């Protein structure tokens, strides 16, 4: 059957794609800013999924600088940027809104870790020694609390759909999205006056990954094909872990005096952060391990189990302004698919903060943007070619993921096999038989900085 267009709402409509921390907060803010608006929150699954609500730690840390700590927080964010970039106004927005983000979470009654006297416990974060981060446990309960909040405000929840195209009109404005059903049913077009992309990050593009389940890996491809610019897209956080079970291993804890005594002086600094650094001197340890990876991607250790590198979360995404606006009118981005507030490295707990801060800002700005009028009266756009089929070819995704493990790892050699992988991705982006496959190839090209 041909794809169908859902009935166009006769009043203004904000469409939020993705229901992690960023999407939930965006839908909440949009409905709170303009209660008369229709706000729809789309996610593939009703159950907790993604890195916000289904990560394997069952906990999230959040940077929560108090007003007196704002300047130090901003300085740290800027110092961690290279070789990526940080937009000062976005780092300022994080510092400025952090107290509000924390009180939002407290208002939901989340299970924050506390000291014996009841005060919030504060922790250092990766790359960030000051005790500024707060931590909450029980992500299933957090998901329930967010759902209750958005439902209570009147947000419409649409589960079971995956966005495969953000549409634009002749003037370049975002007009809605084509959604494909995860299981049975027909694709649907949802028209909207504003679209907020909260689609999560690029880690699902990798075979070895420790992101939460239910991510699509489509966010960069969707945003790029909608006309946005990406920033810092190649800087993902990677963790080392045991190849067998993915259990974390901090390279700083390895016996460097035996492995490579000339590098042992980096071990203490390396213990200060779990993700690999792109520009800090202690990356020498990670380079040493990477250079020993075999064709299977494993770095053998004398007398120990082999290590593998796991993609964890992206630090870049669509370039946004302080209100989550992309360069495409009517299209906003927030959370792990937005970039510019973190550089190549980010403070541990920085992503939960940015998902909440830019989720709230994007949702509010989308709801309050001037009414363009008329979109509800226009007919549905043509269904995209080559089709909204969600099943990728059997061999495509494993091949893409294996290639990403090898060629999108930090410091990967710019060799002929990488060039061949990029050439294959380009043909997939142009000619693959499904739109999803094309978008996955484009997402991968964005991470490889080769789109
Ligand atoms: C193990 C682990 C521990 C972490 N710990 C921390 C921490 O302590 N502090 C911190 O700051 N960060 C941490 N992170 C990173 C952080 O959890 C994520 O970066 C953050 O939660 C991302 O939020 P999000 O809302 O942008 O994305 P997600 O929570 O991943 O949500 C994305 C949503 O979009 C949906 N989606 C995806 N594609 C589509 C599509 N095409 N159409 C419709 N919906 C779609 C997904 O199903 C999901 O609902 C951790 C990550 C992991 C994996």
Automatic annotation (TrEMBL):
Q: Where is the FAD-dependent oxidoreductase 2 FAD-binding domain?
A: 13-236, 313-349
* A Pfam family that the UniProt record links to this protein: FAD_binding_2
Gene3D superfamilies linked to this entry: FAD/NAD(P)-binding domain, Succinate dehydrogenase/fumarate reductase flavoprotein, catalytic domain
Record's signal peptide: 1-29
Record keyword Nucleotidyltransferase present: no
Q: By its UniProt entry, which InterPro entries does this protein fall under?
A: FAD-dep_OxRdtase_2_FAD-bd, FAD/NAD-bd_sf, SdhA/FrdA/AprA, Succ_DH/fumarate_Rdtase_cat_sf
Cofactor(s) listed in the protein's UniProt record = FAD
> What is the protein name given in its UniProt record?
L-aspartate oxidase
What organism is recorded for this protein?
A: Humidesulfovibrio mexicanus
């Amino acid at each position: 059957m041909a794809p169908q267009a859902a009935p166009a709402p006769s009043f203004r409509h904000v469409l939020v794609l993705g229901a992690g921390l960023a999407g939930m907060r965006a839908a909440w803010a949009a409905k709170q800013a303009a209660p008369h608006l229709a706000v729809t929150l789309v996610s593939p699954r009703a159950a907790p999924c993604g890195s916000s609500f289904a990560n394997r730690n069952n906990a999230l840390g959040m940077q929560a600088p108090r007003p007196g700590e704002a300047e130090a927080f901003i300085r740290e964010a800027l110092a961690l940027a290279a070789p990526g970039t940080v937009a000062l106004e976005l780092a300022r927005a994080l510092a400025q809104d952090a107290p509000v983000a924390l009180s939002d979470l407290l208002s939901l009654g989340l299970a924050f870790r506390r000291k014996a006297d009841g005060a919030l416990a504060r922790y250092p974060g990766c790359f960030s020694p000051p005790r500024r981060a707060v931590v909450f446990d029980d992500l299933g309960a957090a998901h329930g609390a967010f759902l209750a909040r958005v439902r209570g405000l009147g947000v419409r929840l649409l589960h079971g759909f995956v966005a495969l195209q953000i549409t634009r009109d002749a003037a370049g404005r975002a007009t809605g999205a084509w959604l494909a059903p995860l299981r049975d049913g027909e694709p649907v077009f949802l028209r909207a006056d504003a679209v907020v992309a909260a689609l999560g990050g690029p880690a699902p593009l990798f075979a070895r990954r420790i992101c939460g389940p239910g991510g699509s890996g489509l966010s960069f491809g969707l945003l790029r094909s909608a006309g946005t610019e990406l920033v810092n897209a190649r800087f993902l956080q990677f963790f080392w872990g045991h190849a067998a079970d993915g259990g974390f291993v901090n390279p700083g804890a390895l016996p460097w005096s035996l492995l490579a005594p000339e590098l042992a002086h980096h071990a203490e600094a390396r213990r200060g952060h779990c993700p690999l650094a792109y520009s800090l001197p202690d990356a020498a340890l990670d380079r040493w391990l990477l250079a020993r990876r075999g064709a299977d991607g494993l770095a053998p250790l004398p007398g120990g189990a082999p290590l593998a590198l796991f993609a964890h979360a992206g630090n870049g995404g669509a370039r946004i302004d302080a209100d989550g606006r992309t360069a495409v009118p009517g299209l906003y981005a927030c959370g792990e698919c937005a970039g510019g507030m973190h550089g190549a490295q980010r403070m541990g707990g920085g992503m939960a903060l940015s998902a909440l801060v830019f989720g709230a800002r994007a949702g509010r700005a989308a709801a309050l943007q001037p009414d363009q009028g008329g979109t509800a009266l226009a007919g549905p756009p043509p269904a995209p070619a080559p089709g909204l089929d969600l099943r990728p070819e059997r061999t495509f995704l494993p091949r893409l993921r294996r290639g990403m493990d090898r060629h999108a790892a930090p410091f990967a050699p710019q060799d002929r096999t990488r060039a061949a992988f990029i050439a294959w991705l380009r043909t997939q982006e142009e000619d693959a038989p499904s739109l999803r496959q094309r978008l996955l190839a484009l997402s991968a090209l964005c991470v490889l900085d080769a789109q």
